[in-house]
Amino acid sequence: RYCRLRNWNTLFVCGTDEYGTATETRALEEGLSPQELCDRYHAVHADIYAWFRISFDYFGRTTTPEQTRIAQDIFQRLLARGFLLQDTLEQLRCESCGRYLADRFVEGTCPFCGYAEARGDQCDKCGKLINAVELKNPQCKLCRGTPVATPTQHLFLDLPKLEGRLEAWLERTWAAGDWTANARHITRTWLRDGLRPRCITRDLTWGTPVPLDGFRDKVFYVWFDAPIGYLSITANYTEHWERWWKNPQQ
């Protein structure tokens, strides 16, 4: 509102992030398909924001053809430029639930600091990133059973290849003073330990399909997919979306 009052060219977008295991699980609980569940809660969120008079230019969602097109395009560009790896991942599978478990549905003891309630992607006590199979005493959060590590082929973002360029960029932006102390600390911790390849695919059905032979039965991990929602929501609002997101001169 401040920017609009100043007559600055302003775009205010938001939306619902709808893919992933959390949606699949809640849909099962409510006896709905994932799409039906997302349709219901997208409307609920939109009504709440309208009640609060939050004046988005466009309130969108991630389950759109534009999201699929842009996410797959970014993936193809990464693939063509050599920033992706293919490797076997040990992924926790709960036989009682009959499914691979997303990181947020695994809890256990942190292998680094011993915190007993670490998640399958990160320890909230020491801040270190974790692969779910590294957890000690892992538990399925859905049924409290003990999941089993099972090998499966996945695609990874080759973050070590970007580490040098990222460090140089961070030094420049840190010097400008726009980062919070907490953000600096977390980022320095990641760099201190060295960046590792990060998995961007999952053995799920509800998500953006991976457009590559050998992986077409998988979807993009929401960690990779959801931030692209800002781009696709803008694209659903205006055909000139790239001028908002790819315009470094402004």
UniProtKB/TrEMBL annotation:
InterPro entries, sorted: Met-tRNA_ligase_1, Methionyl/Leucyl_tRNA_Synth, MetRS_core, MetRS_Zn, Rossmann-like_a/b/a_fold
Reactions it catalyzes: tRNA(Met) + L-methionine + ATP = L-methionyl-tRNA(Met) + AMP + diphosphate
This protein's record includes keyword Aminoacyl-tRNA synthetase: yes
Keywords, comma-separated and alphabetical: Aminoacyl-tRNA synthetase, ATP-binding, Ligase, Nucleotide-binding, Protein biosynthesis
Domain Methionyl/Leucyl tRNA synthetase: 1-248
GO terms (BP aspect): methionyl-tRNA aminoacylation
GO cellular component: aminoacyl-tRNA synthetase multienzyme complex; cytosol
Gene3D superfamilies assigned: 2.170.220.10, HUPs (3.40.50.620)
GO molecular function: ATP binding; methionine-tRNA ligase activity
Family: Belongs to the class-I aminoacyl-tRNA synthetase family.
PANTHER family: METHIONINE--TRNA LIGASE, METHIONINE--TRNA LIGASE, CYTOPLASMIC
Name of the protein: SYMC protein
Organism: Mohoua ochrocephala
